Amino acid sequence: MSLKHLARKTVQNIKPYQSARRIGGQGDIWLNANESPFSNEYEYQQSPLNRYSDCQPKAVISAYAAYAKVRNGQVLTSRGADEGIELLIRTFCEAKEDSILYCPPTYGMYSISAETFDVKIKTVPLTDAWTLDLPAIAEQLDTVKLVFVCSPNNPTGNLIPREQIIELLEMTKNRALVVMDEAYIDFCLDQSTVDLLDDYAHLVILRTLSKAFALAGLRCGFTLANPEVIELLLKVIAPYPVPVPVADIAVQALSEAGRAKTKYQVLELSANRAYLQAGLSQFPNTKVHDGYGNYILIQCEDSQRIFQALWENGIIVRQTPIKNGLRFTIGNRDECEKTLAFLRTLFNA
Ligand SMILES: *Cc1c(COP(=O)(O)O)cnc(C)c1O
After folding, report:
1. Are 197 and 53 in contact (CB under 8 A)?
2. For burial by CB atoms within 10 Å, which of 86, 88, 166, 196 has the most?
3. Alpha helices of 69-141 — where are they, by DSSP H?
4. 110, 113, 154, 318: which to mutate for ligand 1, most atoms within 8 A of CB?
5. What pLDDT digit, counting tens, does each position of 168-184 carry?
6. pTM over 0.85
């Protein structure tokens, strides 16, 4: 007998997030999950594992606060930025009453997390230039507690203009929190909105070690916000969310040497991105969009066929809800070269 009927109706009806890992594939070249191609080594510290970790290990919090140039009380660490999204929804949204608002095409987890908790969803599509439609957002704010804005946006790759974010913050004062998803901001750190935290108490920023820090498998993310928001989130978070080895490695990654390595790898990936972008731009009927993270979006005729041909050749990229859109994660130089070489045969270019 199936036990499905025992689950909440909402859960029975959920379509799980199609993560790159879930979709799978048989690849030699993985360009579908915005992971880093660099596998950095860490020393295994023999920390005792018989004791629970601190809920918020102080060394991790201090190290990230120093990196992000904020105060310790403005930082929360969790299992990836994804857990930050979920904590915000569980902390601020009343089930079946309150809403989140986000602007598609964008990251898929805002809606999935809201759905699992029966929180309502409002969407205001990005404009044709992939910027915020602020007048439309203003009209939709009723019942909205959280507005998610992803910049650089996944999967389009563009930045949301700072003036728009400020306007959104003014518009939402005393009504809703603005959550800036800065998962890719380490690739363009000067574009962060972190300096606005002190001016806007309702600004929240999500960060992660999964992308530029090359630690997707570690599951370590950060929420930056004013201490009152952090205290509320800490009421909801699991008692021991950060495994001891995760804290050890996060501290190493955020040390001076770790940060220097990340900076170097960011430069290398930016050079590879320019290389891939220039190469892709040669192909006929292909629009290559500027990207500020470790990925670029192209729109090409017959994208399904191209995706399939790449897939069958062991090069796994990501399909997107954007018409004819394919997203390429920036790999190492060899991976970029092989991808371009294969596409050249496809396009006969
Ligand atoms: C990858 C990603 C995340 C989640 O990062 P984790 O820290 O690995 O959970 C959040 N937001 C966006 C836009 C992402 O692309």
Report:
1. no
2. 88
3. 80-92, 109-116, 134-139
4. 154
5. 999 999 999 999 999 99
6. yes
